[in-house]
């Protein structure tokens, strides 16, 4: 092994991919003619490696598994949002649990890294629940005198919940920034 061998061995991947300049390529070829050890390394690197991924459908199965996991997580987040919406109705003196929307905002923002998705996951279920609560008699009584008043109450409740969601999003954003710096 002479002084050129480590240089040639470093250049072999570029040589095999035909990424060397003409002069460097000729230098490598001349060295390979005279050096048995480097020629053996070059021949070994041209042997195709065994493929461990199953042919035909392996990637489709993997994508299906990932999609299933993500869908499960999304359904979980939506279910949590609906449960929170039912449990934190501001107008029914259950405002103590509204802080959970900060947690929901932080977790959904950290998972999806999207303000829009975090707001939708917190706001839509809450709005639907509040519309059912204030605009129908599903629970035996009306909380408003008119549909417009009920809509206004539902909208106000959603806005209050979204304020806490935005606080959670800000917390999630800060957590992600701190993790990126470390």
Write the SSE topology.
Blueprint lengths: L3 H13 L5 H13 L1 H10 L12 H30 L12 H13 L2 H21 L11 H35 L1
Helix pairs in contact: 1-2, 1-3, 2-3, 4-5, 4-6, 5-6, 5-7, 6-7
Walk me through this protein's architecture:
Helices cover 74% and strands 0% of the residues. The longest helix is centred in the C-terminal third of the chain and has 35 residues. The chain is rod-shaped and about 95 Å long. It is mainly α and 182 residues long. The model has no long low-confidence stretch (mean pLDDT 80). Helix 2 packs across helix 3 and helix 5 crosses helix 7.
Write down the overall geometry.
rod-shaped
Count every helix, treating DSSP H or I runs of 4 or more residues as helices: 7
- Helix content range: over 70%
Instruction: Supply the helix-strand structural class.
Output: mainly alpha
What is the element string, with H for helices and E for strands?
HHHHHHH
Give start-end ranges of low-pLDDT stretches.
Answer: none
CA gyration radius, whole angstroms: 31 Å
The span between the termini is 43 Å
Strand content: under 5%
**Average pLDDT reading:** 80
Major beta sheet summary: none
User: What is the number of beta strands?
Assistant: 0
Oligomer, anyone? single chain
């Amino acid at each position: 092994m002479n002084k050129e061998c480590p240089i040639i061995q470093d250049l072999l991947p570029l040589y095999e991919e035909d990424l060397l300049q003409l002069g460097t390529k000729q230098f490598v070829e001349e060295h390979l003619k005279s050096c048995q050890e480097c020629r053996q390394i070059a021949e070994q690197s041209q042997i195709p490696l065994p493929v461990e991924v199953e042919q035909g459908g392996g990637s489709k199965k993997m994508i299906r598994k990932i999609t299933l996991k993500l869908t499960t997580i999304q359904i979980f987040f939506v279910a949590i949002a609906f449960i929170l919406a039912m449990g934190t109705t501001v107008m029914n003196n259950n405002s103590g649990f509204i802080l959970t929307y900060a947690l929901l905002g932080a977790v959904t923002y950290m998972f999806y890294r999207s303000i829009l998705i975090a707001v939708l996951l917190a706001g839509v279920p809450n709005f639907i629940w509040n519309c059912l609560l204030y605009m129908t008699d599903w629970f035996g009584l009306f909380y408003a005198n008119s549909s417009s008043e009920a809509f206004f109450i539902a909208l106000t409740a959603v806005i209050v919940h979204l304020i806490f969601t935005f606080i959670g999003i800000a917390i999630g954003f800060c957590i992600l920034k701190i993790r990126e710096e470390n």
